[in-house]
Design brief:
This protein has 286 residues and is of the alpha/beta class. Helices cover 34% and strands 31% of the residues. The protein is built from nine helices and 16 strands. The chain has helices spanning 22-27, 68-76, 111-123, 142-148, 165-186, 198-211, 244-247, 258-265, 269-283; strands at 2-11, 14-20, 33-37, 45-47, 49-53, 58-64, 82-83, 85-90, 101-107, 127-135, 151-157, 191-195, 215-218, 234-237, 240-243, 250-252. It has a six-stranded mixed beta sheet with strand order 11-10-9-12-13-16, with helices on both faces. Strand 5 (49-53) and strand 6 (58-64) form a beta hairpin.
Amino acid sequence: MYRILEKKELAPKHIMYRIEAPHVARKVQPGQFVIVRAFPNGERIPLTPVMWDREEGWIVLITFVRGKTTMRMANELKPGDSILNVAGPLGNPAPIEKFGRVLAVGLSAGIVEVFPIAKALQKAGNDVTTLHVAPAPMAILKDEFTESVSRHIFEGFEIQEGWGTKEIVAEIAKRGAEKVKELLSEEDFDFVLTVGPAGAQKAVFNVVKEFGIPMHADLHPIMVDGTGMCGACRVMVGGEVKFACIDGPGFDAYKVDWDELIHRVGFYTDLERRALEEYLKSLRGE
């Protein structure tokens, strides 16, 4: 059992959990993830440790409430409760090298994965600019970024009436691509990192490749066990099948088959929506 030491809402739909997990805290590196199973018979979901303390033995996880499991965690878990399983750290650490000037882009909730990587890159001697693109109410970790990197930029926008997830992600992709193009046109960068929805990452990549700048993309395909056994997280990279859990989660953006990734990410959308609807019905006693 992994005790919840602290829980709070950072912004709408963004919930922070500080969890007692000494075996993860001792070994985790920026860019790695854990697989969490919060409830008996619950699904396993990948989450990224955003902060940690190796001596005190805790990690911080931030969820974006978008499906049944993250909503159930937000509704049912409180400080003092325990999460059933936290497996990890898993995946490969991000490349922490001396690149020079780095642009690290967090698209929507992808900003939480950017934080530990950007912080480590800054400590390694890089000049790091971080960019967060999201709806205005969902700005998170602004103070933490300001204290940890050379410059933090938040590109926010208002959600229009009638917009759903599809329209919001499209706006994130549009604004992300525009802002990245503006920054790359006005300044010299040596390396770009992106984390976020696949479609938005592709939009940013299409801009970055115009400038020929090396780019590292942290991918979020469907993931089940996180150890390479299920094969659900396979992605095509450089014409070869790779598993995001054991070969990634970060890859050379120039080698990623973005269209296949986008198709696979949406494969279970209808089932995920149905599961969420059934959970909401249960809350209403239907």
